[in-house]
Design goal:
Layout (H helix, E strand, L loop, with lengths): L1 H4 L16 H14 L3 E2 L2 E2 L2 E5 L3 E5 L83 H12 L31 H15 L13 H12 L12 H18 L23 H24 L6 H16 L25 H11 L13 H33 L7 H18 L18 E4 L36 E4 L8
Antiparallel strand pairs: 1-2, 3-4, 5-6
Amino acid sequence: MMLLYSNLTGPQRNDKEGPINEYDRAAGLCDWIQESDLGGSGWGLEGIVRMNAGFELIWCNFSSPSLRLIDHINVTAPLLPQEARNGITRGSAIITAEEPFMTPMGSITPLPLPTTLLNQRTAPAYPPNPYEWRKHREQEPYLNSQAYEWLRSATWHYGHSGSNSGESRVKLLTCGFMTFYDPTFEHLSQAKTKIERERLNLTELGTINLSSSDTDQDHILKSLSRRRRYHTLTSMPATEAAAFRAKAKRVLTNLNSPQTLHHSSSSSSPQPHCTGTDWYALTTTIVTRYSAPLLELSHLLSTPPNTNSSTSALILRTILHALLTPFFSYPSPSPSSSPPSSNPWSLDGQLAQETLSRCTFHYTRLHHSHPLNPEESLLRSSVEDVMRAICSTAISIFFPIERHFSTSASSPSSSQIRIWANQLRLLRAWLGWQDLDLDVQCEENCGVGQLCYVPMWPLQLPLRHGHGQYGVTGEEGEEGGKKGGERGVGKQEKRGREACR
């Protein structure tokens, strides 16, 4: 909507074309590709992959030579007889047993007919609307199960543990990633910041006060970690929407270039092409590397073991040492005859600053040796912001503990441990990784006939189909998700009952 119409409502709706103008938007995207000289029949961009609760492909021209006709079959099931309108079944029909369909062992099943190019010379100017099933609702044999089966196919490519590796059929060129979080969209960013300050009671600097009760703290931190669920584009002006559209055209033009994956720092191109960095793999590495230790540290500081403070400090030291080992060097011990030097474990000292620098730029240091396009530059700075937050928090806890073990300094006090615990909780809430602590999954294991799904369009709204045995029913839960979907995912049952809790 925003890319095509610079708003979230689109043009005036035509009820005959469906409540959300799916075909208008699909045709509009394809028209924009053609008008922007980004692709056409057999070259450049020929389609769009759209993500909602599943992944969908919008293909622009079915007469393209890029397609091969595999088969052409009629999948429309015959309507049930008129008696079905009154709930009458085919009770008089007698189904007799037949010989099972089996292929002899060792035999070879022949291939179907050879594939061909589509024999139509031109694609239709506008695709026909889907079959109007509402006219024969009671006679459609599979109407009651279509929503559930669509949902089942959508979850095939989620990629959570125990399932598969995600939507692997689409290969991403991450150097072209664009985001509405780009700070160049100043009006949208300011509007979002204002709303968050009011809703989360943040200070002018964006900090949060945790001096309230434990119950209030939990609610504040939970809201902070899930703040992105409330972000919309309703405050984006038409000028910034037009800027996003122009950015998209520039990025896609660059990605169409044959030099995209062969960037050289000596290139004379006004816009550097891709470095070849897989930013998705890099960010996944960071989340995988740090999410579990941060959760462990937070749990340890919030519920310290029933031991003395030195033992607690030893456990903290072990975990933090593993996190920071690649980034700091132990100071050389001073000779016994030398006067005591300044505290090497000071958070304002050179060792702390050098450690923070190595840790912050660990994944992006080489990316500062050559120019990046605007999209990769934003990705680099985002990675560095996340690493800086993680590293500075880890150093602020590790260095005082290391001082305790390397000198005669006293053990951390209970008040100091509470301060560290709040630091960890704030960091994890700011990162928003709580939903990833146990990967993307439902809190309960789904039973037979149930699916665990991500509550996003079109499933963030209550589902009220419920027609017959396979009707999908749901109930909207907290923050637009489904009940039972505490970690951003929900469950749907197949047998006309409400979403599992």
